[in-house]
Amino acid sequence: MRIDLRSDTITKPTKGMLQSMMNAVVGDDVYKEDPSVNELEAYLANLFGKETALFFPTGSMANQAAIKLHTQPGEQLIADHYAHVFNYEGGGVSFNSGVSCKLIEGNRGMITADQVEAAINPPDFYHSPLTALVCVENTTNKGGGACYDIETLKSIKDVCERHGLGFHLDGARLWNAMIAKDQSPKDFGKLFDTISVCLSKGLGAPMGSVLIGDTELMKNAIRVRKVLGGGMRQVGFMAAAGLYGVKHQWDRLAEDHKRAQEIGEVLSTLPFVLHVEPIDTNIVIFKIATNEDEFIAKMAEKDIHFYSMGQGKLRLVTHHDYSERMHQYFLEVLQSMD
Ligand SMILES: *Cc1c(COP(=O)(O)O)cnc(C)c1O
């Protein structure tokens, strides 16, 4: 039995999802003639209380397009030093938008209004880049699935409004945050100018992300997507998978969170585990006293797979394809390690 805890991106379509893909009515989405894509976009815009939404092949492209919509070359965005847009999008912020990042050392990838305020360059000081945008991530990836309180986000939003800055949410795993914190999409729609969400992680679709925002800001999004090479044809098969994920596989993220908690509880009893980071959602980060590559190799012998983050830190992610049977077996294996 292969147990793959490297990421929730490894999830495969369920029977119901495959059925919805098979039944999808499609058309050429470059002409905006794909009914399934149009349906997904309308559904998500409405869910978040925004005017419009646009389907993207990847979350990176959706974030990169958002950054382009909010900025001009030479300007600067503010983000936590763990941010996906800075660390894991291939330098796209500078490549695509000619923008630099002012990085904040937040707590597990989360930043505060005071930190944002302090990071803004005074607009009349023409020596420094003009601050244009604040990007936050929820849940945080490198921060171990941490998620924000709405109050914290509200106070960052106030700072953005006072200084005329755009406010973008990298919500790749926002679905997990909303389940963990009992928040609603409209809570986020009210706060952010643009929101990207992934369909291909916990929700289990094979691909796809959606960028959500209001018409005025989003009017160039389709052009930016085209420039980035993201105009797709009969992609309604994938949009149907994503819509199925939102409608039928969102609630069950609570199971992933529960299993992550249980893994954390067992880990913290093991003598060679130095530290388990707080577990808010489906990501578990822990530190071990022994060599992490050896530990990972030992686990791989038992066909259990997860990642090293370097410096003794290990990461595992629970997801739809990690079943209760796998979970019980994994906990047993962990308890037998010395
Ligand atoms: C996964 C992820 C993305 C998007 O990644 P893609 O692989 O490009 O779809 C963006 N932000 C965060 C925080 C993520 O975890």
From TrEMBL:
CDD domains: TA_like. Residues 4-289 form the Aromatic amino acid beta-eliminating lyase/threonine aldolase domain. Coiled coil: none annotated. SUPFAM superfamilies: PLP-dependent transferases (SSF53383). The keyword Lipid biosynthesis does not apply. Its cofactor is pyridoxal 5'-phosphate. Keywords: Lyase, Pyridoxal phosphate. GO terms for cellular component: cytosol. It comes from the Bacteria. The modification N6-(pyridoxal phosphate)lysine is found at K201. GO terms for molecular function: L-allo-threonine aldolase activity. One of its GO terms (biological process) is glycine biosynthetic process. PANTHER family: L-THREONINE ALDOLASE, L-THREONINE ALDOLASE-RELATED. Belongs to the threonine aldolase family. NCBIfam families: GntG_guanitoxin. This is L-threonine aldolase. It comes from Aquimarina intermedia.
